[in-house]
Structures are given as C-alpha cells and as structure tokens.
Design a protein that fits this description.
two-stranded antiparallel ribbon, Rossmann fold, 7 helices, about 20% strand, single chain, 8 strands
Length: about 200
C-alpha cells in the first residue's frame, strides 16, 4: 500500500482523476475494507490509478490485466477485484481476454478508460478512434472503422456492460458500485476526455 496517494503524475488536466475519484468513492460508500480490494492495472497511464488507491494492487503486462485479475479472484473469491485499463491496450492486445471474460462471466470488474487514442505514446490511433481522424499513425485520417465496446461485449454474452462519460461523476460512481455488487463480469467503458492528445 502506498503513501502520498494524491501525488498525481498524469498529464496536466488528464481526466483520469474523475474515474479515480469515482472508484475511491464507490469503495468508501460500499464500506469495503482496503485489505479486501485488489486493483489490477498495467504499465503507463492506467497503472497510475492503482498507485492512488489505498489497497492492494499490481501492475501487469500489456493486455494481461484480465488473466491476472481472474487468477486473483479464483484464488480468493472474497476479494473485490477491479481491473483498470485504457482503450488502446484493453481493446487491442487484451481484446481476446476481454471477450472470453465476457463469455465466461468471470466475477471481476473491468473498467476501461476510453480516450480513443494512444495518449501515452503521444497520439496514435486506437481501436476506438473515429474514422478519418488524423493522428501520428494515421496522418491522412484513420481508415479503420472503430468498434463499439459495449456492443462487442454483449455479442460475447456479457450481462453487465455500460458506457458512460467521465464527467458524469455521480452516475459513474453509482455504476461502479453496481458493477462491484454484480455477480459476474462487469464491464464499464468510460468515455474519457484527453486534453493533451484527443483533438476532435
């Protein structure tokens, strides 16, 4: 567990702090002891989330938060396990794990902060970047149609999959509480602003 939980290291004005605040508030309002919480992230942007929540946490490999979170939950089903990711990795490298977790109804919470671009590597197209948006990797415009994460999850029989705007902070907190209390795989796609790189 870490001290100095408010020493934020994201880009200036990153809206990731809204999701962070919603998770913190949800855990507090549900009165879940910090020793019963495990936050699973990966390296880069989403990994900062785990560093700012007072509880157990782990930073894993690219696209591998769901297998790791699943292992933790199977080892100790009493734990509240929350995997937090970004769209570029969660819906890219980790897509296969995401779909199978939906299908298996693994009892974890999966929150994806979807800012529609590879922000940390400074603005490349991600699986959710809108068509014809110009980025560093698509200088003439993104030719690839993005997928809808919620529709994709539901096509894999996910019973709890919702999309919400990050600025709807109270609704986001309540949705996270519902996800924690849901008996099965709970997916939340947080449509997130990115002042540094999302320029559309």
């Amino acid at each position: 567990m870490r001290k100095d939980l408010n020493n934020i290291q994201w880009c200036p004005a990153c809206w990731g702090f809204l999701t962070l605040g919603a998770v913190r508030s949800a855990l507090k309002e549900l009165n879940i002891p910090k020793e019963d919480v495990v936050i699973v992230t990966w390296i880069w942007c989403s990994s900062k989330i785990s560093q700012y929540i007072d509880g157990f946490w782990t930073e894993t490999l690219h696209g591998r938060s769901i297998p790791y979170a699943t292992g933790i939950k199977l080892t100790n089903p009493k734990l509240t396990v929350i995997a937090m990711w970004w769209d570029w990795d969660g819906y890219g490298i980790g897509l296969g794990h995401f779909l199978h977790a939906c299908r298996r109804n693994t009892n974890i919470v999966y929150i994806v902060e979807d800012n529609e671009n590879y922000a940390l590597t400074t603005w490349q197209a991600s699986p959710t970047t809108p068509t014809w948006i110009k980025t560093k990797s698509t200088p003439t415009g993104n030719p690839t149609t993005p997928f809808d994460p919620v529709s994709l999850a539901k096509s894999a029989w996910c019973q709890f999959s919702h999309s919400i705007q990050d600025k709807e902070i109270v609704k986001l907190k309540e949705l996270i509480k519902e996800a924690i209390n849901f008996d099965g795989f709970a997916h939340i796609d947080v449509r997130q602003a990115c002042p540094s790189w999302k320029r559309w």
